[in-house]
Amino acid sequence: MDRFSILFEEIRxxxxxxxxxxxxxxxxxxxxxxxxxxxxxxxxxxxxQAWLAEKRANGEEIRQEPAVFFTQIEIPDAVQV
Length: 81
Prior knowledge:
About 25% of the residues lie in helices and about 20% in strands. The chain is α+β, with helices and mostly antiparallel strands. It has a single domain (about 1-80), classed as 2-Layer Sandwich (Double Stranded RNA Binding Domain). The longest helix has 22 residues, at about 35-55. The protein is globular and about 55 Å long.
C-alpha cells in the first residue's frame, strides 16, 4: 500500500469561485484542485492512482514518503516590514 500526505489549501485566486481547494502532494510535487475538501480529495485520489499506474507500467521506482510534520506559525504584525 502506498501512503502520501496531502496538503489542502483554500484557493483565493481570481477565476476560482469560493469553496475550491488545492490538493498538494509535497513528496511527489503534484497538485490538483476540486470543489470543497471532498472534491479536492477525490481529484487527488484519482491523480495519484493514475500517476502510480503510469510509474508501475514503466517500471519506475515510486519514492516513499519520509516522516512529515506540518504546523503553522503566526508572525506578529510588528515584526513584518
